[in-house]
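Morning!

This is the sequence you dropped in the shared folder:
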Amino acid sequence: MILYEYPFNESIRTMLRLEHLFERLQVLTERDAPVDHHFAIATLFEIMDVASRADLKSDLLKDLERHRGQLFQYRGNPSISEAALDQVISRIDEAYGALNQLAGKAGQALTTNEWLMGIRSRISIPGGTCEFDLPAYYAWQHESVTRRRSDLQRWVATLLPLGDALRVLLALLRESGSPHMVVAPSGQYQQSLQAGRSYSLLRVRLGDTQGLVPEISGHRLMVSIRLMRQDGEGRLRPSGEDASFELTLCA
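The structure's back. Tokens below.
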């Protein structure tokens, strides 16, 4: 199955982009090749760029605090496991505390590293990190795997509070939805959204053998999904076939 997610607002869009970058960073850091560690550093800079939005940290802290307040209302509810509730609240408290203690914006501590910032200034230039442009960086890529990974982990550690807060918030959001199967006649599906309820995320799960790609659009009143199929040149064309898929709306 292939999962597609569609954000309904800019805040969730930013969070999904950062989650994607953190997942890529983890994969690249765990590999051994110098070229993988080069792209890990490039991803590190991408995270810093996306996270540089002035109000991102405060927005995440507010969201964590809001979820904590909502969960506290379930205290004493006989249908809710107190142990499970305590576990979720503890995760929120840990993420909130670590992010709140982070000085400035995510990655700000790395901006004082002249060596890293020298790489950052040239990494967007095609071929700008060649050995004759950045000999010190070229030498670092010839260090042992252990040394390179240790450096990467030290730099990534400055961003972990942000990554942990994102994981907690996105997990809570995804768990708020109930998946159900729907049918798209002739590859088209539309659904009116419940008035007075604000959704943040749409999730579509398609069978990986169907060869279909969803083209999703939506706003506060309606969501529309058109199922597409790639032609021989990779362009998307309407499939025109009846198909079923799993749909989840998360508030």
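Headline: The CA atoms of residues 61 and 96 lie 6 Å apart.

More detail when I'm at my desk.
O.
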